[in-house]
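Might I ask for a little of your time on a matter of protein folding? What I wish to show you is a protein chain and, alongside it, a tokenised description of its three-dimensional fold. I should value your view on which stretches of the chain appear to form regular backbone elements. You will find the record immediately after this paragraph:
***
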Amino acid sequence: MFTWMSTVADPLRARLMRLVERQELSVGEIASVLQLPQSTTSRHLKALSDETWLSSRREGTSRLYRLVMDQLPPKKAQLWRLLREDTPEANEDELRLAQVLRARQTRSQAFFAGAAQQWGRLRSELFGENLDRNLLPGLLDPTTIVADLGCGIGRLSELLSPFVRRVVAVDSSPAMISAARDRLGTLANVEFVTADLQNLPLADATADLAMLVLVLHYASSPRGVLAEAKRILKPGGRLVLVDMQPHTRDEYRAQMGHQWLGFDREQIREWISAVGLAHPRYTPLRPDPSAKGPPLFVASATTA
């Protein structure tokens, strides 16, 4: 106890501790508030850290300090409560701390003021083109069971699997299922099924979410595929469908086996209603400037 008291007996250290109890701060920021040289501030921080009054972490080239009451032993916390009563210096420190925090915000605002026109490019360079796509599955409930219908080589299953309870990856092509299994075989919560999408070997009301991404234009009976998707959905489940808007690229029939040259809003809404799904939505997607194919849409509906 006496060692603790001697460590915090210096009034400057008490002022410093009040600051880092309020806000995690760097050495330079603390020095600015206390109007001390950084070398003096560092010496006080070392003494307090050696006695485990403070915790710290490194962020880039800086070290940030914090006093967390819940991390102090009860007797230490009791001693600090006795020492941290407000003083005139503490009030002045609070004003200078507010200035330091405003300076942080000003630096951020200055960066964005200069980078606003280039932020999209900078963001992509720093974090990749797929950042937005990769974070969206975090909106899913972790108990969700997903049916990835027409899974292909498993790109969507791979994206969703870390965020959900289970993914059932279904495709009518044994070659696609084999490629998906090779790609995702280490993911314990992904099951692979080879099946016709109009005759799924899945029980009624077993999936929370059914995905049909760039699949429906291959179906001889899109309505039949939608009916099967509706059958396997639980009450309150959701269908999400992504496909091409109507187009005139007839060569896709011969080149890739497409049976439909896209779908318009009324066609999709009609089929969705016909199979008993509710709340249909159809939203055209903004074309990707680098994409060579027709523009896409996303449609969704729910079970009653």
